[in-house]
Amino acid sequence: MQAALSGTLATMLLYGVTCMQTFHYWQTYEHDGKILKSLVSFIWLLETAHTALSIHFVEYYLIVHFGDLTYLEYAVWSMGATCVIGFFIAYVVNLCFIWRISRLGQNRWIAGFFVIVATVRCGFGLANCVLSFIYPLWTEFRVRVFATMVAGQVLSAVVDGVIAFTLCFYLRKRRTGMKRTDSIINRLQLYSINTGAITSLIAALAVVAFIVLPTTTAFIAFVQVQGKLYATSLLASLNARKRTLEKIEQTVPTADGVALSLFRAARPDPSFLQAIEVQKSVTMDIYGDSLDSGKESQETQARPVAY
Fold first, then answer.
1. Using CA atoms, how far apart are residues 286 and 288, in angstroms rounded to an integer?
2. CA-CA distance, 32 to 25, in Å (whole number)?
């Protein structure tokens, strides 16, 4: 049970991160829509239940039945319930990122395909959890779920990686040619890659532990942490919006949007050449969180400036 204990300690640490992110969200984004606020509250409640159940099954094995090796041969109900909540959190977060893909790419077919794959992946996970209730003996459980466990975690790693790659692809298409905006998009691309890489790595480690360590419950530790990472990635992306907008708005603001640097022509002879002040307003729905259509608009206006 060393791996399960380590997994529970890690989930408690990540739960603290989740609580801080949730608190920061409610303090910073009080004007968000009801749907988004409800989603954050729902994720936090699921994370709270996930942490409580993780503590319960560790207490069941290591405190209540300490020294009784017979109980270690069976899976307690709270362990399966923890996995159910974790897979459901992963599914909800995947749907959120898929929705962003649909807003950025305006392609329902790609989004629909991702929804189907994510649903199949969630189905594998929930099926394994149900089998843990039906076959609580670890040796029998491993035989029953070997194929679905491996397929589900491999599919999880693939789905997370492909979703991150697709987000990066559509963000790259939103480049404007302006250095400041492109640098922000580059940072968002790097964040998407890191998020997908971490969750994919955890899924791969869960498969390896399940196959290589058949007499232990080491894979449970990775499955526990996996659900927490999905919630953390979603809340972090929501909380990063304000900082990203502040990066864009570091130049002089205008009534219509963001004024970028002022460009003026050279003045070889002021008698026949006027300086031109250029203001460029850019509105970009990078995250796809607004209720408006995910479109990008640019306005450029020029007017003579008197010296």
1. 6
2. 10
Question: What are 63's two structure tokens?
Answer: 């405190």
Hey, what amino acid is at 190? L
Q: Which two tokens stand for residue 161?
A: 């990686």
pLDDT in tens, 244-287: 666 655 543 443 443 333 233 333 444 433 444 444 444 445 44
With beta carbons less than 8 A apart as the criterion, state whether 138 and 73 touch: yes
8 A C-beta contact, residue 248 and residue 181:
yes
Its pTM stands at: 0.76
Rounded CA gap, 243 and 179, in Å? Answer: 17
Nearest to 5 by CA among 218, 291, 277: 218
CB atoms within 10 A of CB 9: 14
Helix, strand, or coil (residue 296): strand
Cα–Cα distance measured from residue 90 to residue 225, given in angstroms and rounded to the nearest whole number: 11
**pLDDT surpassing 70 at residue 16:** yes
H helix runs in 106-178, sequence order: 108-134, 138-173
Neighbour tally for 39: CB within 10 Å: 18
How far is the C-alpha of 69 from the C-alpha of 62, rounded, in Å? Answer: 10
Q: Which amino acid appears at position 154 of this protein?
A: V
CA-based nearest residue to 258, from 168, 136, 176: 176
Q: What is the pLDDT of residues 127-179, one digit of tens each?
A: 999 998 999 888 888 889 899 899 998 999 898 888 888 888 887 777 766 76
Measuring CA to CA, which residue among 257, 247, 245 is closest to residue 299?
Answer: 257
CA distances from 109 to 153, 159, 217, 234 (A): 24, 16, 39, 23
**Which token pair is 266?**
């050279």
Which helix (H) or strand (E) segment is 92 a member of?
helix 77-105
